[in-house]
Amino acid sequence: MALDSKIPSGPISDKWTNYKDHINLVNPANKRNIDIIVVGTGLAGGSAAATLAELGYNVKTFCFQDSPRRAHSIAAQGGINAAKNYQGDGDSTFRLFYDTIKGGDYRSREANVHRLAEVSTNIIDQCVMQGVPLAREYGGLLDNRSFGGTLVARTFYAKGQTGQQLLLGAYSAMNRQIGRGKIKSHTRHEMLDLVLVDGKARGIIARNLVTGEIERHSAHAVVIASGGYGNVFFLSTYAMGSNATAAWKIHKKGAFFANPCYTQIHPTCIPVSGDHQSKLTLMSESLRNDGRIWVPAKLEDAKAIREGKKKPADLSEAERDYYLERRYPSFGNLVPRDVASRAAKERCDAGFGVNKTGEAVYLDFAAAIQRYGKEQAYIKGLDANDAKLIIKLGAAVVANKYGNLFQMYEKIVDEDPYTTPMMIYPAVHYTMGGTWVDYNLQTTIPGCFSIGESNFSDHGANRLGASALMQGLADGYFVLPYTIGDYLAPDIKTGTISTDLPEFVEAEKKVKDQIDKFINNNGTHSVDYFHKKLGKIMWDKVGMARNAKGLTEAIEEIAALREEFYKDVKVPGTADSFNQELEKAGRVADFLELGELFAKDALHRNESCGGHFREEYQSEEGEAQRDDENFAYVAAWEYKGKPSDAVLHKEPLVFENIKLVTRSYK
Amino acid sequence: MKLTLKIWRQKNAKAEGKIVEYPLDGIEGDMSFLEMLDVLNEGLINKGEEPVSFDHDCREGICGTCSLFINGEAHGPDRGIPTCQLHMRMFKDGDVIFIEPFRAKAFPVIKDLVVDRSSFDRIQHAGGFISVNTSGNPVDANTIPVPKHDADRAFDAATCIGCGACVATCKNSSAMLFVAAKVSQFALLPQGRVEATERVLNMVNQMDAEGFGNCTNTGACEVECPKGISLENIARMNREYLSASLKG
Hints:
The structure holds two protein chains of two kinds. Chain A has helices at residues 15-22, 28-31, 43-55, 93-103, 110-129, 162-179, 245-252, 299-306, 323-327, 337-349, 366-380, 387-413, 468-488, 502-519, 527-541, 548-568, 580-604, 628-631, and strands at 35-39, 58-62, 80-81, 155-156, 183-186, 189-197, 200-208, 214-218, 221-224, 257-258, 263-269, 292-296, 320-321, 361-364, 422-431, 434-435, 448-450, 633-638, 647-652. Chain A is 38% helix and 14% strand. In chain A, helix 3 (43-55) packs parallel to helix 13 (468-488), helix 15 (527-541) packs parallel to helix 17 (580-604) and helix 16 (548-568) packs antiparallel against helix 17. The longest helix of chain A is centred in the middle third of the chain and has 27 residues, at 387-413. Chain A is globular, with a radius of gyration of 25 Å. Chain A has three domains: 15-263 and 432-491, FAD/NAD(P)-binding domain (3-Layer(bba) Sandwich), CATH 3.50.50.60; 266-428, Flavocytochrome C3, Chain A, domain 1, CATH 3.90.700; 503-631, Fumarate reductase/succinate dehydrogenase flavoprotein-like, C-terminal domain (Methane Monooxygenase Hydroxylase, Chain G, domain 1), CATH 1.20.58.100. Chain B folds into two domains: 3-110, Ubiquitin-like (UB roll) (Roll); 118-247, Alpha-helical ferredoxin (Fumarate Reductase Iron-sulfur Protein, Chain B, domain 2). Chain B is 37% helix and 11% strand. In chain B, strands 2-1-5-3-4 form a five-stranded mixed β-sheet. In chain B, a hairpin with an 8-residue loop joins strand 1 and strand 2. Chain B is elongated. Chain B starts with a strand and ends with a helix. Classes of the chains: A alpha+beta, B alpha+beta. At the A-B interface, helix 3, helix 5, helix 6, helix 12 and helix 13 of A face helix 1, helix 2 and helix 3 of B.
């Protein structure tokens, strides 16, 4: 099967407009006869569900959480990009497009990214109309800040809770439609399979997580908005329940899975403290607006700090190595995430780490507190030479910007980040890879769409900060509602899809069999035992730096672990009740397949690009070396029974508007 | 450290529940409270017993999924955080810790420590929104300036995570703080003023229909709220409600 990306013809800036002008529309009366299932209620799923219901479709939403408001988009902290150019600093649609392509290390699809940049401004307008309280300046207009990989300030924010506020906006739009009966919301439900009828996606099998009942739901199209697969690493900044099951089930039913090896390791997370750790906590990238990252310049100082004999404040400026500012003078602390993460790993591997395990660097706000303090003293006409006053004023400004993050840090680490620098280390945070979709956001299964983090389309090999919220809402509010209409136009006479069709019966039986197998397995180890083992293989061999030997080993080890899991996993409780261990078992079973494909994809890609860093392919200075001649394509994998048998399909990436060059932030 | 846990176990919504005692050893101060429960559950599974069910998801204090009434306090002894950000360094060796679900008539128990908070969702369905469709032709976001002070107060109200600690804490099981937070957020913004009258009436009616109690101004909700939502919001909602009722 050849991949058809269905990119419209014409100049890049006209593609989306022309496309919208020429697609098939469904008239309002007919929309009432069409059902759409949306799996996942985060920014992408929530905004899509609300918009589709507003248009008149009958929408059914599914989420495993107890409320749509709890999807993990809620945890996004720093902000959302939009090419508004409110700051007059030279921003434009083209610049956002260019930054995103470059940030993704030239591994994303031009047409999709340009469309994203075009609709970015509408998102801000829409959210403000919904009552999302974005940060404002004293004049009452919206405020912006800077994020990594850009030279403009285009990030809109709501303190360190931007994801929460945007999600609550989408949730409120959903609530309005739920109140009108246009959305039927199924909470504490998990999709466990996709149902195909005549080759088209026509429904899902879902488990009611409270009663354990297996349910059949039909629709004319199914939208997957279930997020990313970072929990394959066990430890990550994802929520405990975040999983790849919906995405993996559609993959097994024929949706190609693209670029699984493109994973984002976020540079500023709170370091691991011990074996008991269940998750990692992000400290927003926005902190790099004001925080300076450093390690001791001398090995003996790093050692003394690790042993508790010295404190960071004991080191003079000359004894500190602000390694990002040193290596990348033009972007400094605001280099993209992949670059910052690798640089932290490089310093720590060289012995300069500053916590007990040697896997942490400093993020220091002392300079920002001084700068803001002096500014406030001038504004208020106070004494700018009063050191104590300056710190007090400066700390207040920092608290206003990042208060909740500082509080979070203090609760976890038990240290005050206002007076001593934060310790941070990279952690798994986002997956750029995901279900392959065409320009319409449709997967290789007709009628099955994939939006938000669960698809692969916009971020290439590395996502820029504040772009995930942008993509989720762009897909849900402004893209899918058009493209799905074009698909559904021929379906207006189909009528309701019966859930008594043999395809539903068969899919339901398979789901039940799998559940019974887990419950009756009587193994000896918990699900977490296997999940942690998988996570360790992934982090050690498929993590921030990869090589052919490690990847080959990882593939074998994951396959063996999967076999052991099915033989020896122990799932207590029953199938027909609330059973959290059973939920986890199904999710980890899917991660055990996905992890292997992930490693296989990383092994096949003989280049370094974005979040995919192969040690064999780097410059003398340790920068990633791309191979555009051989690897300027999307790797889309077709399921063939086992991850090792997956078949590779290539979608060549054509760059007509941006020249492929070595990505440099120096 | 060594602990004695006394945990509410209840098989399902209809079954009778009881407190069951579990001794637990090897807990470190750096663990979060939920990681302590993970350790307990891992041990229970290995012994062939059913683990304790509890709600949790983001484990970074923002999704509002975790609940737990710990030693008689919603989200435990620390302030300004939900249970997932509570760390074991708040406890000491030998402590006895009671762990119960959030209790309220409108929050029926599903299993063990897991409760059904869908009543909160239904209150939001009744009016927790501004009636705007996704627009193909939106108005520029800076067309209506909003005074920073108002925007900040709207934000403070909007940070509610919907966990239900206010209800669990309140002697009347009142949801006033939760409802007031949403009413306030929109009442403070020009975009939300248009529907302010219907919104407050509809949301308060639904709150009453769900079986939540009334507010008697004790203020325990504000103390236990992990996000520090202020009682001022209840005052604002009362004013909104009064003027809406007069407009009829």
